Amino acid sequence: LKPLLCANRQVLLRSRPTGIAQAENFELVSGLIPELQDGQILVRNHYLSVEPAMRGWIADIGNYLAPVAIGEVMRSIAAGLVVESKDAHYAVGDAVTGWFGWQEFAVVTADRIIRKVTDNDLPLSLSLGILGINGLTAHLALTKIGLPMPNETVVVTTAAGAVGSAAGQIAKLMGCRTIGITRGAQKVDLCRDLFGFDVALDYTAPDWREKLLLACPDGIDIYFDNVAGPISDAVHGHLAQNSRVIICGTASIEDWSHWPQGPRIERHLLVKRARMQGFVIFDHQDDYPASITQLATWVRTGALRYQEDILMGMECCPDAIAGLYRGENFGKRVIRLV
Ligand SMILES: NC(=O)c1ccc[n+]([C@@H]2O[C@H](COP(=O)([O-])OP(=O)(O)OC[C@H]3O[C@@H](n4cnc5c(N)ncnc54)[C@H](OP(=O)(O)O)[C@@H]3O)[C@@H](O)[C@H]2O)c1
Which of 16, 64, 141, 174 is 20 to 30 A from 220, comparing alpha carbons? Predict the structure, then answer.
């Protein structure tokens, strides 16, 4: 319930980072919850999402969303319960996920709500991860751009993370052979043992490039790229004829204002008749309902596994993005408030 005259703890953007967003770019403050106007809904956030992309949402550089203004509540997707409503379509107790920001309570209009969460047999936090942006990205990028065919070889980066782990498993469900690339022995084990990658490689090991070559003797049909940089440079040389490269993220590039120059890849694309395409999940909102139904079915049957990296409390917000870039998370990072 909404506590009387409750303070609403919020995380505000205080300054723009030059590279990866750090704790000092944010400030935890106490605000108040305003009275609801007609058409507004008050949501109590139970879980806040942490995305690598949040770094882009606060950078003053060309992106697919306008940057969060200095002094504003940090933009984020969150999941929670409606505690008061002046919109007839939403009732007290409805579980919802949407653009609620890094704060305990959000006063929103319906256009900020992504969906009502009706799969009540599954944890609400999944609406931020495997049944949210991450699962949707993995599923829709694969089916719209990757176009997997049985027996094809699929390479996935950030393979132990939220998008990567789902992408690997979905490719496998579609009959592909999967190779996951991640950091460190523990994540390699997770990729193999929980997420079922046929091969998992540690990109910090000196011989990982040789192992990649051995793992894909017939080349790579689909490269699900979440990192760019030197890892991708190694993968591009092994693309197969008619391969597809999904550009989904650029996690390894620290400085976007001085984009690093890498090997020229045009010759690989030309000789292999390969196709490379960028993907942004927010372009595919019409496909969310069908994709979520499919993802939830796989989760219920155990065909699609997930791991959550749950931090406790608002105090964790400021450093949470930097932690993703330090590779601390095993699976989907969320912050639990309730
Ligand atoms: N295009 C879209 O619509 C869309 C939507 C959602 C997510 N994404 C992208 O998908 C990627 C994964 O997102 P996620 O939410 O699932 O996060 P995540 O994989 O759960 O967490 C981020 C991971 O990035 C890896 N990483 C960080 N710095 C790196 C570096 N320098 N080199 C290589 N890997 C590095 C770390 O894994 P390791 O420990 O293995 O290095 C870290 O765990 C991100 O690039 C994100 O921007 C794109």
Answer: 64
Torsion angle, alpha carbons of 110, 298, 275, 233, to 10:
100
Element (H, E) at 74: none
- Please indicate whether residue 252, judged by its CB atom, sits closer than 6 Å to ligand 1: yes
Atom of ligand 1 nearest to the CA of 248: 1
Q: Which atom of ligand 1 is nearest to the CA of 331?
A: 20
Q: Measured in angstroms, how far is the CA atom of residue 203 from the centroid of ligand 1?
A: 14
Q: What's the angle, vertex CA 151, arms to CA 147 and CA 152, rounded to 5?
A: 45
Q: Pocket of ligand 1, candidates 22, 158, 197, 247: which has the most ligand atoms within 8 Å of its Cβ, to mutate?
A: 158
Q: Rounded to the nearest whole angstrom, what is the distance from the C-alpha of residue 303 to the centroid of ligand 1? A: 23
Cα–Cα distance list, 30 to 7, 12, 111, 179 (Å): 6, 10, 25, 46
pLDDT 10s digit of each residue in the chain, 338 long? Answer: 454 456 899 999 999 998 899 999 999 999 999 999 999 999 999 999 999 999 999 998 888 999 999 999 999 999 999 999 999 999 999 999 999 999 999 999 999 999 999 999 999 999 999 999 999 999 999 999 999 999 999 999 999 999 999 999 999 999 999 999 999 999 999 999 999 999 999 999 999 999 999 999 999 999 999 999 999 999 999 999 999 999 999 999 998 888 999 999 999 999 999 999 999 999 999 999 999 999 999 999 999 999 999 999 999 999 999 999 999 999 999 999 99
Is the CB of residue 327 below 6 angstroms from any atom belonging to ligand 1?
Answer: yes
| Residue 234 DSSP SS3 | helix
pTM for the structure as a whole? 0.97
Query: Is the C-beta atom of 280 inside 6 A of ligand 1?
Result: yes
Query: Is the shortest distance between the CB of 77 and ligand 1 below 6 Å?
Result: no
Sign of the Cα torsion 285, 287, 289, 294 reads negative
Query: In this structure, is the dihedral angle defined by the CA atoms of residues 240, 242, 248 and 250, taken in order, positive or negative?
Result: positive
